Amino acid sequence: MTSQDAATTSQQSDRGVVSVPSDTSSSSPAPVATTEETSAAPAAPPNPRLAALAVKRANLDVKLADLQARRSALVTEAKLPSGLDMPADWSDDRKTKQALSSANVVIKEHIGLLHKYNEMKDIAQGLMGLIADKRGVRIANVMEDFDMGEKD
C-alpha cells in the first residue's frame, strides 16, 4: 500500500468509512464501504460567530422587508405636486419615481429655506454685535433688550 493509499484509508476511517484493500495485482481497487457517520462521532458544534452572523442577517432581512413595506405604503399615499392622486394606470415603478422626485423637490426647497434663515440669522447677530459694541455691553444684554432668548 502506498503512502497515498494509507492517507486515504485513514481519512475514510476517520469519517466512519471502512474500505477493504484489494490485491495489488488488479488495476482498479474494489473497495467495500460502509458508512456509520451517525453513530461514529458526534457532529462538531457550529461556529458561534457564524451563528451570530446568521441571526444578524435574519434581523436585517426582517428590517429590510419592513422598510420595503413602509416605502410601498408611502408611495401609494404620495400625490402629484399639484395635489392630485397619481393616475391608476401608472406602473408601480413610475409611481415610485414620481414620489421620489416630489420628495426631492420638497427637500431642496427646505434646504434653500434653511440657507436663507442662516444668512438672516448671521446678519442679525452681526448687527447685535455692532449695537453691543456701540453701547459697550455684552451681546446677551442686547438680546434681552430685543426679547430674544439664547436659542433664538
Describe it for me?
With 152 residues, this protein is mostly helical. Among the domains are: 8-40, no CATH class; 78-145, no CATH class. Helix content is 64%, strand content 0%. It is built from 5 helices and no strands. The protein has helices spanning 3-14, 37-40, 48-77, 92-135, 139-145. The radius of gyration is 38 Å and the shape is flat. Mean pLDDT is 80; it is low at 6-26.
Search tags:
152 residues, mainly alpha, 0% strand, flat
Give me a quick take on this structure.
The chain has 152 residues and is mainly α.
Strand and helix layout:
Layout: H1 3-14, H2 37-40, H3 48-77, H4 92-135, H5 139-145
Helix pairs in contact: 4-5
Low-confidence stretches: 6-26
If helices are DSSP runs of H or I spanning 4 or more residues, what is the number of helices? 5
Overall pLDDT, averaged? 80
Q: Which oligomeric state applies?
A: single chain
Shape: flat
Distance between the termini: 91 Å
Helix amount: 55-70%
- What structural class do helix, strand and pairing data support? mainly alpha
Strand content: under 5%
The Rg value, from CA coordinates, equals 38 Å
The string of secondary-structure elements, in order, is HHHHH
Total E-strand runs: 0
How would you sum up the major sheet?
none
